[in-house]
């Protein structure tokens, strides 16, 4: 009897071990699927358009590329201006995509059409233009190096984690707000490129080697939590995204 019990006990232990392994695999698979779904891009990648021309900067020649984005106060405004909107929530958003793909070792010119209002930056540092060619950006045809902290609607702030495996890349560009009246209605602008409804911001920077970077808005355009950095500010695909240098 004792031999039989020992055999049955060993069998049960083996069966329990197999069940435990299968459950572990299932849990790991479920967690992996969940994380993959959570990290999946909400929009298609936006690829920069390469130019056949080159440009010389500080005596070095670079190929050229360009990419265009928009910043919209809601999804309907994005649709009205021909952009692909993020339709999950009716929040302020960049479009047509928040995952930008840029070529390596290239002079990249980015154009951003901006249609939102604003209040005041938490940190006036982000009102300065940093990391662009010449340290400037062009707003509606005028080159500037900064915007007052209370005139910013959003920022495009591109950066990466300190690492020895990829080249550093940091760009900060503040985006000029669209003025509103006492009722909160948007006032017409002078920028024909946005149908007098926004501003056109253009700037250039030079990419290094291949790498993965992130960008985000540093204007507190979220809800009242975390000093204005909650809700939309913490949701990928709206006011933050990726930059892949390939």
Question: Tags for this entry?
Answer:
single chain, alpha+beta, 2 domains, 6-stranded mixed β-sheet, 7-stranded mixed β-sheet, 18% helix, 32% strand, 246 residues
What does this structure look like?
Mean pLDDT is 83; it is low at 4-8 and 14-38. This protein is an alpha+beta fold. Strands 2, 3, 4, 6, 7, 8 and 11 form a seven-stranded mixed beta sheet that branches. It has a six-stranded mixed beta sheet with strand order 1-5-13-12-9-10, with no helix packed on it. The protein folds into two domains: 1-40; 42-245, no CATH class. It contains two helices and 13 strands, in the order αβββαββββββββββ. A hairpin with a 2-residue loop joins strand 2 and strand 3.
End-to-end separation: 69 Å
Query: Number of domains in the coordinates?
Result: 2
* Largest sheet composition: 7 strands, mixed
Mean pLDDT: 83
Number of beta-strand segments? 13
Residue windows where pLDDT falls under 50 for at least 5 positions: 4-8, 14-38
The succession of helices and strands, N to C, reads: HEEEHEEEEEEEEEE
> Helical content, roughly?
10-25%
Beta percentage is 25-35%
Shape call: globular
Q: State the helix count.
A: 2
Helical/strand content category: alpha+beta
Radius of gyration: 24 Å
